[in-house]
Amino acid sequence: MSSPDDRSDIAADIPENSEFSEISNDNGGVSRRNFLKGSSVALTIPLIAKGEKIVKAGGAEVKVLGPDKVNITLNINGAQRTASVETRVTLLDTLRNELDMTGAKRVCDRATCGACTIVMDGKPVYACTVLAVDAQGKSIQTVESLDQNGNLHPVQQAFVDNDAQQCGFCTPGFVMACKALLDKNPSPTKEEMEMGLGGNLCRCGTYDGIKGAVAQASQEMKKTRTMKGGRGNG
């Protein structure tokens, strides 16, 4: 137990202009009860600012989010979707838990397997590595966007035709990675194909089927572009 002299040392360390400078006991020190009360106030102050606020940093105003939930708007599959999430929540968990879009799978949750792959601004991205608040203003495509009035997208159909899936956990991520690859490079070489899908893993080992699916989807998507009247535009 601390002596009055010890508590006097504590009081001496408190700045004169501090809101705690007048907390003392009759012996000139700080009482245990009042010191703990003052400490709890000091610890509570950082927690008062919640949600969203503006602070000045380096002479500029900076928006600070959190720790409470904040409202966000995401452009997903061409539609504006809103959610209320904590700033630490990933895009993957927002899709699955807040927006009921469960196509992207939560398998490794550490950017190693690719099962959560979505397309953001035309590039394949691991949704588990992106904070939902940072995805605002981006164009996001999930596997749900491939629905064509109840018909499978050419990439999805190619996966079925080439038996390119077994357990299915990796399939949505592979499908989106394949689509991103073929949108950018309609006729990839074998090396380009392997490079484009290098961020996705299939624990069942259906890589030969996946390569066959990419080759088939490449031909089908080129036919679709031609049929849409653009002769390559589409």
Gyration radius (Cα, Å) is 28 Å
Discrete helix count? 7
Let me know the number of strands. Answer: 7
Helix content: 25-40%
Give the CA-CA distance, first to last residue.
Answer: 78 Å
Number of structurally distinct domains:
2
Give me the oligomer status. Answer: single chain
CATH-assigned homologous superfamily of the largest domain: Beta-grasp domain
* CATH architectural category of the largest domain: Roll
Class by SSE composition: alpha+beta
CATH class of the largest domain equals Alpha Beta
Question: Given the C-alpha coordinates, what overall shape results?
Answer: elongated
How many strands, what sense, and barrel or not for the largest sheet? 5 strands, mixed
Q: Give start-end ranges of low-pLDDT stretches.
A: 19-23, 41-49
pLDDT averaged over residues: 84
Helix-strand topology string: HHEEEEHEEEHHHH
Strand content: 15-25%
Instruction: Report the CATH topology name of the largest domain.
Output: Ubiquitin-like (UB roll)
Enumerate the strands of the largest sheet in spatial order, edge to edge or round the barrel. 4-3-7-5-6
